[in-house]
């Protein structure tokens, strides 16, 4: 039962980014964000890490500690890219605002 | 493997992201940013929960919290995006203009400018004529397709924004199309209102243009605001003459004095400015009252809005303007530039002086270092030499033949080392007082023959010939031993760098109160860059340690003489020494 709920929730959490990406594309037509591809890459890697994190629970029904640690490292990589991208965008915007 | 380490790092990274987002929110304070902040707040929450979940209740139901938190975060992001999108579309708030893409900002600025004229024209003659003008423009520039005059009697160009791709390459095309439309509208408006009023209106409209895209409006300002008022009021014969004289590509004048410049966007910014200057020069040459026009032009330039002035008032452009226009500004800019130039020159001189000082210091340090080291080595070397001599002469007991042979080699090398140290000691300085005491007048030929006698074995090995041609009674005044050493160093050097069967010629001539000794060889020659450095200590072209010529220079100069070298690659070298002949 828990596995079915988890699967449904996971699918929902994977559909929502697709919707978000559509909005993002629309925004890109209006807003000039030079480092937008960095944000997309970072978010994509976060999602991959998230999928790895949930995979053992969905398919095996229990935790596999190695996969969990691995997923944390993938997420870390994604977060590092996001930090870089967000800092760069912040610097650009700060220049414009001032 | 510690699971908490990556969690802690992830927590730290997500807090950084959250911190930046909060920082942006404190500047902007927009609703969409608040959604983003909320979404990003869930990230550290997720990692905090993760560490609690691992420690206390690692089970299936606890895992369900992860997708739930993620879904909430994703929904928050979507809300933020929707919010930003609707704000941008509705153009809420001035700050959104900063976020707009350059091409969209350009379309909106042109749209506003066109609406400025459309509003005035429609009040006077209705909107129909404007619609006809727009149709004509669409026909000529398909990029305007879809633009229309709405029920509010305003131009609507939103369709162009949706048609634009992500690349910002069409800006020039947009400018060209809209310029054509603007020129047509101004022509229409000018038929109804005096041009002076139009210029004032245009200045106000241009003032509102975003600084970021102001550069695209420079041709509009230069031709329509600065030049056209003169053309609109010109005498018919002057205008006719100017129309005939203007054969500048991309610029046309109509019969009423209106300037069409839209094709000018095909050129770069610099060329556009050059074309304006060219136009201006031709206009000044044809129009009467040149001085009056120049004064009025200066006034117009000064009255321009700040956003445009910032782009136009650059040194290069102002400098190119004909004499009499914006003279004061030119002087200010010139003096500024001269001041900068002066500062740069002074800084350069200061740097050079500092370099020279550093070099001089280094030279001094090098000399004292050599002096100390050489003296410190020489003392123990003398003791070694004495003991080796005692052993060799069997004063300290018998030695066998082999030991004797080896000791002879040691003694030979010690001799070499002593000579080298003696040479090194010659470089730093020669005591002037001591030298005065040792100075005498001696026969030049005598020491040169002695030198040749010393080096003949060396030359013989390389099958070289040494020729001597010394004038009779040529004398030199100086320390005989030192001068001999200096000349010998040069001759040895010549032998060393001259190939087999080469010729070394030593000549000595009488030059009034000076003796001129030259040593010429048929060697490979010295490159120009080496020629300047061969007299520096330890500068070697291969072979020795590079002290011979430095010593020679030191000796000659301490005698008040001069030494130099002449050479060409492949043609051999000649070393010249000038020394006093008498006291």
Compute the separation of the termini of chain B in Å.
Answer: 92 Å
- Helix and strand content put the structural class of chain A at mainly alpha
Tell me which oligomeric state these chains represent.
heterodimer
Strand tally of chain B is 11
Structural class of chain B: alpha+beta
Distance separating the two termini of chain A: 55 Å
The value of Rg of chain B in angstroms is 45 Å
- Give the % helix of chain A: over 70%
Instruction: State mean pLDDT of chain A (0 to 100 scale).
Output: 85
Shape of chain B: elongated
Counting DSSP E segments of at least 2 residues, the number of strands of chain A comes to 0
**Uncertain spans of chain A:** none
Q: Tell me the series of helices and strands of chain A, N- to C-terminal.
A: HHH
Number of separate helices of chain B: 23
Question: What form of chain A results from the Cα inertia axes?
Answer: flat
| Low-confidence residue ranges of chain B | none
Can you characterise this structure?
Chain A is mostly helical and 98 residues long. Helices cover 88% and strands 0% of the residues of chain A. Chain A has one domain (2-97). Chain A has helices spanning 2-30, 36-59, 65-97. In chain B, the strands form four sheets. Chain B has a five-stranded mixed β-sheet, with helices on one face. A two-stranded antiparallel ribbon of chain B has the order 1-2. The mean pLDDT of chain B is 84. The radius of gyration of chain B is 45 Å and the shape is elongated. Chain B has helices spanning 4-28, 31-56, 60-63, 65-90, 96-99, 102-125, 128-140, 158-163, 171-190, 195-207, 218-232, 236-245, 269-286, 290-303, 306-312, 315-320, 327-392, 401-426, 432-438, 444-461, 480-497, 528-531, 548-558, and strands at residues 148-149, 155-156, 252-253, 259-260, 440-443, 465-470, 475-478, 503-511, 514-521, 562-567, 573-580. In chain B, strand 8 (503-511) and strand 9 form a beta hairpin. Chain B has four domains: 4-90; 99-333, no CATH class; 339-428, Helix Hairpins (Orthogonal Bundle), CATH 1.10.287; 432-580, Histidine kinase-like ATPase, C-terminal domain (Heat Shock Protein 90, 2-Layer Sandwich), CATH 3.30.565.10. In chain B, helix 11 runs parallel beside helix 13. Classes of the chains: A mainly alpha (98), B alpha+beta (583).
